[in-house]
UniProtKB/TrEMBL annotation:
Record's function text: Catalyzes the oxidative sulfurization of hercynine (N-alpha,N-alpha,N-alpha-trimethyl-L-histidine) into hercynyl-gamma-L-glutamyl-L-cysteine sulfoxide, a step in the biosynthesis pathway of ergothioneine.
Entry binding sites for Fe cation: H47, H134, H138
DinB-like domain ranges (all copies): 12-142
Span of domain Sulfatase-modifying factor enzyme-like: 177-435
Region span, Disordered: 146-174
Cofactor: Fe(2+)
Protein name as catalogued: Hercynine oxygenase
Residue positions binding gamma-L-glutamyl-L-cysteine: R81, G82, E83, R84, D420, R424
Family: Belongs to the EgtB family.
Amino acid sequence: MSGLKERIAAGLEAVRARSLAYTDLDDELLVRQHSPIMSPLVWDLAHVGNYEELWVLREAAGLAPLRPEIDEMYDAFAHPRGERPELPLLSPDEARAYIARVRGRVLDVLDAADLSAPDPLCGGGVVFGLVTQHEHQHGETMLATLQLSGHPGPPGDGGPLPPAPPRRAVPRAGGAAEVLVPAGPFVAGTSARPFAYDNERPAHRVDLPAYWIDRFPVTNGAYAAFTDGGGYDDPRWWTARGWAWRTRREVRAPLFWTRDAGGAWWRTRFGRAEPVPPDEPVQHVSWYEADAYARWAGRRLPSEAEWEKACGFDPASGRARAFPWGDAEPGPEHANLGHRLSHPAPVGAFPAGASPCGAEQMIGEVWEWTSSWFLPYPGFRAFPYREYSEVFFGRAYRVLRGGSWATHPSAVRATFRNWDHPYRRQIFAGFRCARSAGPDEEG
Ligand code: AVJ
Ligand code: FE
């Protein structure tokens, strides 16, 4: 058990270093609202500490509130993001002091905890997994806020790519770079993982007909063919809501893309303009754009079950893997995760991360939009609170899978479900396409 406690403490320390690095900025940048759809960064900073206090100190350990008067300000349901700058938030220094005070007590609770007790929060260290993952998720949100702000930091590009892989063909729009997933059942979701969110549970059997799925996420180069070929001007490719959205918002390209006088695409990434690299997965597209591209290419988005089967199902063992490459935790050779780079890696860069069916870069790079609404699995039970998942179920949010370059390795797996409104583009999201297999292609 002490090995587990050490791993938990190391994970808590690492995520806090990340949160502090992303908020190592002038106070003015921390309290400013960079976009009406995002919180001021100082809200995220105090919120992760308040969440940690609520779940570890109060709910799990039964301690009294440290600062009961601030709880309401950091309750994500009490105030939408747009209202948060008007609140009398803790200053950046107060927020740092508060979260450090919480953390000190959390480490004492961890020290004294019996992680082998059959307690739903403490058993197996579940509550520590919850708060660590939660803080990493806010880290990714803070990065999206920084990208929207146009501010140059934080650096990233801290880790080299694995040794240069053999250069592979960039998949062309609607082209042949796809893999077949034969018909048959697999087990979706998980009941067993020590820490998985309520929305990933329980494990359940899903039987799918055969389908093809792209080997790689759709690249900037492929997406530019859609953009340059008038994809944004032809309502045939768009759903009615998607067309209304693109018309009202005058969307003509992914967020952060601009065209130069010669017609070449540039993007602004953390405050700097650069040519759009053709062989990186496209990011900052909405579900509407992903769905329109797929229709233009004669394809469709995969359902989340199709995505998950292509990611984790191993026909040789009949089991679902935690990751495409197996059950080993993600290493630098497997996937572009954890902000080692500050952008997606080119397609073909992670052959060691291929899934059993041959799909690559399903984990890391970009969150991948699926055709599925965010709905509960059969037998769903809210844990530890309804507001994590249950209140979001329905036809307002689409499911995203696989994590991005900004997602921490401990915060994603084959069964992990993310969700957002179909019109959102600030998240590090792209997609890959699929199509149903014909009757003579049952594999
Ligand atoms: C799973 C990314 C949609 O940011 O709203 C953070 C994660 N939940 N705090 C979000 C979350 C509570 C959530 N997403
Ligand atoms: Fe939160």
